[in-house]
Amino acid sequence: MLDIDTGPRPDRRPAIAICAWDLSFTAWDPVEDLSGDPWNPVGARTLPVSGDASAEALAARLSAMIAGGECGAVLLVGHTVHPGAFRLQTRAENKRLIGTERLDHTGPGVVRATAPAAEIVRDLTAVGLNAVAASDAEEDAGSYILYRILNDLPDGPASPAIGLIRAPSDAPDAKIQQAVKTAASAIARHLAPLPRPNAA
Predict the structure, then answer these.
(1) Greater pLDDT, 50 or 9
(2) Which of 6, 118, 149, 155 is the most buried (most CB within 10 A)?
(3) Exposed, middle or buried: residue 178 (CB in 10 Å: 0-12, 13-18, 19+)?
(4) In contact, 115 and 97? CB cutoff 8 Å
(5) pTM of the model
(6) CB contact set of 128 (below 8 Å; sequence gap of 6+)
(7) Three-state secondary structure call for residue 115
(8) Confidence class of residue 200 from pLDDT cuts 50, 70 and 90?
């Protein structure tokens, strides 16, 4: 008789870590219904990462999640100091969290986000949200974490998708949730399923 494994099948969907680094930013709630399960885009799953830690600890945790294969992409979520539009930050500067000194004396002065910026902005616009890709790095924990994650990526042709989306301070919660879902869905389209485990 064949030994048929009837246990649960492993989830081979690639994972996107979504982190609102500021605990006061409560608009993004990954759990949208009574199931207790986080929202997931088509073809991927999300891993909510709480912002209840220092910027240094969050950057280290997210970098470790990428290095360990726990996730294949990261989307940081927060506010912008600029009015009007959702902003997809496309770069981060080599600066300490406080002050103007370089964070990494051997690292590049500027790193570029690897999430598909033009595609995300296009999708945000398509759902009726005012959005821009912004090259200016705002001086806050989000920019610090973005630099740390990008600078920690290993060299190689296939870079994980790392992005940061910022909401204007007057954006309603529903629009922020729509923006995060739209950005994550755009990232998910570029992620490959996890490899099948080797047969024993």
Answers:
(1) 50
(2) 149
(3) middle
(4) no
(5) 0.89
(6) none
(7) coil
(8) very low
